[in-house]
Amino acid sequence: MFVLAFPACAADRLVVLKAMPDLRSGIAAMPQIDAPADDAERRINAALRALDGKVRKADQACRTEGGAHSGWTRTIQTPMRGPRFVSFAITDDVFCGGAHPDVGTMSIVYDMTTGAPVDWTTLLPPALTGKVALAEGSDGTKMVTLASQRLHALYLRFYRPKAGGSKRDGDDSECRKAVAEKMFDDSPPAMMAWLDAKAGGLAVQFDLAHVVQACADAVVIPNAVLRSEGASPILTDAIDAAHAKP
Description:
Order of helices and strands: EEHEEEHEEHHEEEHH
Helix content: 25-40%
Distance between the termini: 15 Å
Shape: globular
Radius of gyration: 19 Å
Strand order of the largest sheet: 3-4-5
Structural class: alpha+beta
Number of helices: 6
Strand content: 25-35%
């Protein structure tokens, strides 16, 4: 664990994320790193502003397509803000006409030493990254997904633990079945990943069909498990340090 009174570099600190005015009613803007300390943090802020530009254009196209009954809601979580990594989970609830609204989650984790999105293949072992691909979010943003049998197995291991025969267990059983099903060609689902400092681990989630969308929980794989699976100490040490800070 590294806790420094005077950070050796900007990436060793916790950053303050400043809330910005909503882009439109219901559409949250990406927060900005307050008083960025170096070029890497300035690059992150520029990337976050670009995400705002993407959703503005997508919202306008949605309203043109769906008319008066269209709607777009965006919420943003910032579950880790240093050291080393800053993490965002974005949820869009979109209706542009059609049978039902669509709900989707995007995740983006930035490396504070470079200002670029993380390369998961340098932080997680091949068994957890599996097939790395780009998926498209609700606003057209490209995001990295990981399709791994082992990652899916860990997701299922920590998904909605059984509550000893509680009333909810019946509903949870249906959801456990939904998330356990493989995707096309018996392949594991393409999963989004982000860092959660409060929970102390790697959060993973994947989208489901609308009829079972309520089952699409984010699940946190604990840091101790990541270590046992062979994750990079750069990642696990940063999660430990963030988890220990208030």
